[in-house]
Specification:
The complex is a heterotrimer of chains A (339), B (385) and C (347). Chain A has 339 residues and is of the alpha/beta class. Chain A has 2 domains: 186 residues, Rossmann fold, CATH 3.40.50; 135 residues, 3-Layer(aba) Sandwich (Rossmann fold), CATH 3.40.50. The termini of chain A are close together. By secondary structure, chain B is mainly alpha-helical. Chain B has a single domain, classed as ABC transporter involved in vitamin B12 uptake, BtuC, CATH 1.10.3470. Chain B has a 3-stranded antiparallel β-sheet. Chain B has a two-stranded antiparallel ribbon with strand order 2-5. The longest helix of chain B is centred in the C-terminal third of the chain and has 40 residues. The longest helix of chain C has 33 residues. Chain C is globular. Classes of the chains: A alpha/beta (339), B mainly alpha (385), C mainly alpha (347). Chains in contact: A-B, A-C, B-C. The interface between B and C is large, with 44 and 44 residues.
Chain lengths: 339, 385, 347
C-alpha cells in the first residue's frame, strides 16, 4: 500500500509536466468533497488516490473524510460541513442509501452536484451513481469462480460484512437468485450467510464456527475486503488448505500470502483508484456542464472506453466501469503495490 | 469579600462552559477569516463565511440527536447510577415503531397508525428502562454498568432479530415521512450574506451581497422544550431534590422515607423513554429509514455531554443548563474543527477524550486549590492572632 | 485478606463437623460457575456431539487474549475501580507495534512485546494517576482514554487510512504465537504464565495483599501504612500492561490489525471477571474464578455461533442473555448461601 503513494506521486509528476502547456485546466476553481463510509479504510484510501490523480490533471481541489463509526448521521455531519465550505461536487459512498436523501437534496438545492460512488445514494437524492460493475455481474462472477473451483458440487457458504451492509446484501441477493435459477449450480448445497461485521476477529470466529459445524465445507464467498484475510487465516489455522477454497472481493495486498498458499484460486476487485478517477472526471464534466446527467450521455475519460450513462434498477442514473480484476497466484504480485 | 464572590462564580461550572464556548467561537471565527484571505490569494472563485451563526444553526441537527438521551441520562447520573444500554434501547424502540407502523397502516388510517406506533415506541423504551431499573435495584451487588452492559447486548440482539439486516423504509408514504418534520427545519430566516467573487483573470475579488436562508432545525426547538421540562423537574420540584438526595446518600434518603427503589425504577424508565424519543428523531434524521445498527455508541456521547455539563457520576450534583451548554460546546467544537480546521472526524474523537478528562479533572483541581488557600489563610490568621 | 483468613479459621471447627456444601460453594465461587460451564457444554454436546473434542483447543486459544486482560482487570476491580479502555489500549499497542514492524524499526518478538507492554503501561499510568491523584471517576477517565486511543489510531503518523496486514509482519512473529507446544498453541502458555504471575503476586506479596486491603477498606489500609494512592496507580498500570500485551498477542494471532478492532471486547473482559465472582465494589475476587469466567465466556463465544449457524441474528442475543443470566445466577447463589450462613449462626 505504501508504494501507492510513490506511484501516484510519479504519475502526478508526469502529468504535471505534460499539462504545464495547457493554460486553463477543466477543473480549475472547483472543489470536490469526497465522503466515504468510514475513516481508516484502505479501500477508500485507494479510491481517494484516484481522485488525487484526477485532481492533478484537472486542477480541482479536494477534501475527503468519513465518519469513524460508519454511521448515517456521521456522514450527514460531514456533508453539511462540505456544504458550508462551498464545495461544487459531492462524491458520496453512502452507509445508508435512503438515509442521506434529505441532506443530499439540500445540497443539490444549493447547486452542488451530488454523485454517489461505490455505494449508491437513492435515486431521488443523487444526480448520478458511479459503480464498478452491475451488482448482478459482481455477484455472479464470484459465484461462477467458486463453483468452478469446487467442481460445481459441495457445500457453499457466504461470510459477509455487517447484516445491514447494503452493497453486500445486494450481491448476496443476486448470488442466491443465480443459485436457484441456474441448473449448473444444482449440486451445490448452499448453507446461508454469516456476518463478520467487517471485524477481523469476528469474521475469523464465524468462519471457525462454520468450519466446525460443517467439516465437509468446500467453498466460501467473502464479498467484503475486510473479511477476506480473516477467513483465509482461519482456513489456514484450521489446516483446511486445499479442502476449503474461498473467493471474494479483496485487496491484493491483504490476500497475496493466502492466494499463493492455495487458499483462494482467484479473488476479485475492481480498481478503486480507477473508480475514484472516473468519478472525479464525471463530476468535473457535470459541474462545467460539458456533460448532462441523462440516459445515453457519454463521457471521455483518459484510459477508458464506452462510458455511458444508463438507467439503473432504482429508476436513477448510473454509470458502470465494467472492469473487474481477478487476482490469481500469477497476477497478484503485480497488484500488491497498487491495491 | 467581593473578591471571593467573583472567585466562586468563576468556579461555577456553567460560567466556565460559557467561557469555553466563547473561546471556541472566537478561535474558529478568526481562523475562518484567516483562511478566507488565504483563499483570495489562491484565487478561488467564490469566498464566503464558513463558520458563522446561520451555518452553525442550520447544521446543528446531527449534533442534537443524542440530546434527549443526555437529558434522560442526567436523571441516572444525578442518582449516581449509569445506563449504557440507551443507544440500544433507542434503536430497539425505533425498530418497534417502524415495524408497528407497517402492521397498523394496513388496518387503519395512516395518521392514527403513526400515532399508535409512536406510542408503541415509547412503551418499548419504557419497558426496556423498567427492566434495567428492576435488575439494577434488585441486584445492588452489581454495578449498574455491568447490568446495562448485559442488557445492551440483549436489546441490540432483539433489534436485529426484529428487523434483520435490511433497512425499513416506507417509500412515498407522506404520513410516515412526516417524521422528517421532527428533525428538519421548518422555520426559515432570510439574511443577507457577503460574498467575495473572483472573476476570471481579475486580481481583486468583487464584493457582493446575496440573500441566504437559515433554517432552524425542529430538533433544536424540541430539545429546548424537553430541556425546559427536565430543568423544571430536576431543579424546581421535590422529586428533583429527592433525586439529588439519593445521589448524595442513598441510605439517608431511604431512612427519611423516600421509597428509593421505586423512585430509581421510575427514573430508569424515563431514561428509557428519552432513548425511545431519540430513536424517533433518528428515523426523522435518516430520511425516514431505520436500521438495526442505528444509534450505536450514542450512550457514550450522551454520557460525555452530561459529564461535561457538570454532572458527576458519583451522583448528587449537576445542572441541566450545564448539559445544554455542553451539547453546544460539543456541536461548535466538532463543527468548527471539521469546517475551519478541516480536521477529520477522528481528530474529534481525540478532542472529546481530552475534553472529557479535563472537564472532570478541573473541578477537583480547583477544589484542591481553594482548600489549600483556605488553609493558608487560616494559618495566617492564626499566626496574626 | 488476612481478616478473611481469620474469619475462616474461626469457623473452621464447626465446618469440619458438618460439611456444609453451600458454604463450601461460597468460599469457592468457581464451583457454581463450573456447574454452569458443564451445563452449557452438555447442552451444546447434545446438539453437536463432537463439539468438545473438536473445540477444546479453540476454546483455550480464544480465551487466552481475554484471560490476560481479565487478569489485569482483576487488579483494577479489586481496588474498586474499573477500566473500560482495555480494548482501545489493546488496539493502540497492536497498531504502534505493527507500524514499527512495518517500518522495520522492530523485528524481534521480544521487542514487539516490550513496545506493547510499554504502551499499555503508559496508558495505565495516565488512567491510574487521574483516578487516584486527580480523583476523577474511573469510568470517565477510562472512557476518555478510549476516545483518546481510538482517536490516535487513524492519525496519519500511525495507521492513517491503511491497516496492518500479514505482509507487513516478519515471518518469525507471524508463526510465534500459534506454534504448537505439546499440541497446544503457545498463546495458551503465555496466558497461563501471566495468570500465574498475577495470581502469585496478589496472594503472596505484600504489595499484592495491599491491593486487596485498599479495595475492601481504603481508610483502614491507609491507617496500616499502605500507600493507597500509589497502590491504585499500580493496579491501573498492571491492567494497562496486560491490555498492551494482549494487543501484541492479538496481532500475532490474527496477523492483522485494523481500525476499530476489538470494539466491545472490554465488555467480555469485565464479564469474565464478574462471572468469576470478582466483586465490582472491590476487595474480593480470586484469579481462579477469573480463569473459569474467561473460559466460560470463550465457550459461549464459540458454541453459540455453532448452535445457530446461518441465524447470526440469534447469536448476539443469546450471548447477551447467557452472560447476563450467568452473572445474575452467580449473585443469587451467593445470596442464598449468605442467608444460610447467617441462619446457621442464629442471626
Amino acid at each position: 500500500m505504501k508504494k501507492i503513494l510513490s506511484v501516484v506521486l510519479a504519475l502526478v509528476f508526469c502529468f504535471a509536466l505534460m499539462s504545464a502547456a495547457t493554460a486553463e485546466k477543466a477543473g480549475e476553481g472547483l472543489t470536490i468533497g469526497i465522503v466515504y463510509k468510514q475513516s481508516g479504510n484502505a479501500y477508500f484510501q485507494a479510491g481517494v488516490s484516484g481522485f488525487e490523480k484526477a485532481a492533478e490533471e484537472l486542477g480541482f481541489t479536494l477534501m475527503h473524510d468519513g465518519p469513524s463509526d460508519s454511521s448515517n448521521d456521521g456522514q450527514e455531519r460531514i456533508i453539511r460541513n462540505y456544504i458550508d465550505l462551498g464545495v461544487d461536487i459531492l462524491c458520496i459512498s453512502a452507509n445508508d442509501a435512503a438515509g442521506l436523501v434529505d441532506v443530499c437534496n439540500e445540497a443539490r438545492a444549493q447547486g452542488i452536484i451530488v454523485l454517489s460512488w461505490d455505494a449508491k445514494v437513492d435515486a431521488e437524492g443523487r444526480d448520478l451513481d458511479i459503480e464498478p460493475a452491475s451488482a448482478k455481474a459482481i455477484g455472479v462472477q464470484q459465484l461462477e469462480s467458486i463453483a468452478e473451483t469446487m467442481g460445481y458440487e459441495g457445500k457453499l457458504a457466504i461470510v459477509s460484512a455487517g447484516a445491514t451492509a447494503p452493497n453486500q446484501n445486494l450481491w448476496i441477493k443476486y448470488i442466491e437468485e443465480e443459485l436457484e435459477a441456474n441448473e449448473a449450480y444444482s449440486k451445490i448445497e448452499y448453507l446461508g450467510v454469516v456476518y463478520g461485521d467487517d471485524d477481523y476477529s469476528k469474521s475469523y470466529d464465524v468462519t471457525k464456527a462454520l468450519i466446525d459445524k460443517y467439516p465437509d465445507l468446500k467453498g466460501l464467498i467473502v464479498p467484503t475486503t475486510n473479511g477476506g484475510p480473516a477467513v483465509a487465516k482461519c482456513i489456514q489455522d484450521e489446516g483446511k488448505v486445499g479442502q476449503i477454497k474461498m473467493t471474494g472481493l479483496t485487496l491484493a495486498s491483504d490476500m497475496a500470502d493466502y492466494i499463493k498458499a492455495g487458499i483462494a484460486d482467484a479473488t476479485f476487485l475492481w480498481n478503486p483508484i480507477e473508480l475514484g478517477y472516473v468519478s472525479a472526471y464525471v463530476g468535473v464534466a457535470l459541474a462545467n456542464e460539458e456533460l448532462t446527467a441523462e440516459v445515453g450521455a457519454t463521457i471521455e475519460v483518459p484510459g477508458f472506453e464506452g462510458l455511458e450513462i444508463i438507467e439503473s434498477d432504482d429508476g436513477g442514473l448510473i454509470l458502470y466501469l465494467n472492469k473487474l480484476n481477478p487476482f490469481t497466484a500469477e497476477t497478484v504480485d503485480a497488484w500488491v503495490d497498487i491495491l | 469579600m467581593k473578591q471571593k464572590k467573583i472567585c466562586q462564580r468563576l468556579i461555577r461550572w456553567e460560567t466556565m462552559l460559557v467561557v469555553l464556548l466563547i473561546v471556541l467561537w472566537v478561535v474558529f471565527d478568526l481562523k475562518d477569516a484567516a483562511s478566507q484571505s488565504a483563499d483570495i490569494a489562491n484565487r478561488k472563485r467564490t469566498i464566503k463565511d464558513v463558520f458563522n451563526l446561520p451555518n452553525m444553526i442550520s447544521g446543528i441537527g446531527p449534533y442534537m440527536l443524542y440530546g434527549f438521551m443526555a437529558l434522560g441520562m442526567t436523571l441516572i447520573l444525578g442518582m449516581g447510577g449509569i445506563d449504557i444500554s440507551i443507544g440500544a434501547i433507542g434503536a430497539m424502540s425505533a425498530a418497534v415503531m417502524a415495524v408497528c407502523y407497517g402492521v397498523f397502516k394496513s388496518a387503519m388510517n395512516p395518521s392514527l397508525a403513526l400515532v399508535l406506533s409512536a406510542v408503541c415506541c415509547l412503551i418499548t423504551g419504557a419497558a426496556c428502562g423498567l427492566l434495567n431499573g428492576a435488575l439494577i435495584t434488585r441486584f445492588r451487588e452489581l454495578f449498574p454498568m455491568i447490568i446495562t452492559l448485559g442488557t445492551q447486548l440483549l436489546y441490540r440482539g432483539l433489534t436485529y432479530l426484529l428487523i434483520g439486516g435490511k433497512p425499513i423504509q416506507y417509500k412515498d408514504d407522506t404520513v410516515w415521512e412526516s417524521l422528517k418534520m421532527l428533525y428538519n427545519g421548518s422555520i426559515k430566516v432570510e439574511y443577507s450574506e457577503k460574498v467575495l467573487k473572483m472573476a476570471k483573470g481579475a486580481t481583486e475579488p468583487t464584493e457582493s451581497y446575496i440573500t441566504s436562508t437559515m433554517s432552524i432545525p425542529n430538533i433544536l426547538l424540541w430539545f429546548f422544550a424537553f430541556a425546559l421540562i427536565f430543568f423544571v423537574f430536576l431543579h424546581l420540584t421535590k422529586w428533583g431534590r429527592q433525586l439529588f438526595a439519593i445521589g448524595t446518600n442513598r441510605e439517608a434518603s431511604r431512612l427519611s422515607g423516600v421509597r428509593v427503589a421505586n423512585f430509581e425504577l421510575i427514573m430508569y424508565m424515563i431514561c428509557g423513554i428519552t432513548a425511545a424519543i431519540s430513536g424517533m428523531f433518528y428515523i426523522g434524521s435518516a430520511s425516514g429509514t431505520m436500521r438495526a445498527d442505528a444509534l450505536k455508541g450514542y450512550e457514550m456521547y450522551a454520557i460525555a455531554a452530561v459529564v461535561l455539563g457538570g454532572f458527576s457520576t458519583n451522583g448528587g450534583t449537576g445542572n441541566i443548563i450545564g448539559v445544554i451548554l455542553s451539547m453546544f460546546v460539543f456541536a461548535v467544537m466538532k463543527k468548527g474543527m471539521g469546517t475551519v480546521f478541516l480536521l477529520i472526524e477522528n481528530a474529534m474523537d481525540l478532542a472529546v477524550g481530552v475534553v472529557l478528562i479535563v472537564a472532570s479533572l478541573l473541578p477537583n483541581i480547583l477544589e484542591d486549590i481553594s482548600i489549600k488557600r483556605r488553609l493558608h489563610r487560616q494559618h495566617k490568621e492564626a499566626a496574626l492572632s | 485478606m488476612s481478616e478473611m483468613n481469620n474469619k475462616a479459621s474461626k469457623q473452621s471447627p464447626k465446618a469440619k463437623k458438618k460439611f456444609d456444601f453451600l458454604t463450601f460453594v461460597v468460599e469457592h465461587r468457581e464451583i457454581p460457575l463450573l456447574a454452569v460451564l458443564a451445563l452449557l457444554l452438555i447442552v451444546v454436546t447434545l446438539f453437536i456431539p463432537t463439539y468438545l473434542k473438536d473445540n477444546y483447543v479453540t476454546i483455550l486459544r480464544n480465551s487466552s487474549i481475554n484471560l490476560v486482560m481479565a487478569a489485569g482487570m482483576l487488579c483494577v476491580l479489586l481496588i474498586g475501580s474499573i477500566d473500560i479502555s482495555v480494548a482501545a489500549v489493546l488496539e493502540l499497542a497492536a497498531v504502534v507495534a505493527g507500524v514499527l514492524m512495518r517500518g522495520g524499526q522492530v523485528s524481534s518478538i521480544l521487542g514487539m512485546f516490550a513496545i506493547g507492554i510499554g504502551i499499555g503501561i503508559i496508558a495505565g499510568l495516565i488512567n491510574g494517576t487521574l483516578v487516584s491523584f486527580g480523583r476523577v471517576l474511573p469510568i470517565i477517565v477510562t472512557l476518555g482514554m478510549t476516545y483518546l486511543a481510538r482517536g490516535l489510531i487513524p492519525m496519519n503518523f500511525l495507521l492513517g487510512m491503511e491497516k496492518i496486514s500479514s505482509i507487513d509482519l516478519v515471518d518469525p512473529f507471524k508463526s510465534f504465537i500459534l506454534q504448537p507446544v505439546l499440541g497446544i498453541p503457545l498463546i495458551v502458555y503465555i496466558a497461563l504464565a501471566v495468570v500465574l504471575i498475577i495470581g502469585l503476586f496478589l496472594k503472596y506479596t505484600t504489595v499484592g495483599r495491599s491491593i486487596y486491603a485498599t479495595g475492601s477498606n481504603p481508610e483502614a489500609a491507609q491507617m496500616r501504612g499502605v500507600k493507597v494512592k500509589w497502590i491504585k496507580v499500580l493496579a491501573h498500570v498492571i491492567c494497562g500492561a496486560t491490555a498492551g500485551m494482549a494487543g501484541i498477542m492479538r496481532l500475532g494471532f490474527y496477523n492483522a490489525i485494523e481500525k476499530n478492532a476489538a470494539t466491545g471486547q472490554e465488555m467480555y473482559v469485565i464479564a469474565a471477571c464478574v462471572l468469576g465472582g470478582v466483586s465490582v465494589m472491590g476487595g474480593y475476587g480470586k484469579i481462579t474464578g477469573v480463569v473459569v469466567g474467561a473460559i466460560l465466556v470463550a465457550t459461549i463465544d464459540s458454541a453459540i455461533p455453532q448452535l445457530f449457524t446461518g441465524q447470526t441474528m440469534m447469536t448476539d442475543l443469546f450471548k447477551g442473555l447467557l452472560i447476563l443470566a450467568a452473572i445474575l445466577l452467580n449473585v443469587l447463589v451467593q445470596r442464598a448461601t449468605n442467608k444460610r450462613n447467617l441462619l446457621g449462626r442464629g442471626i
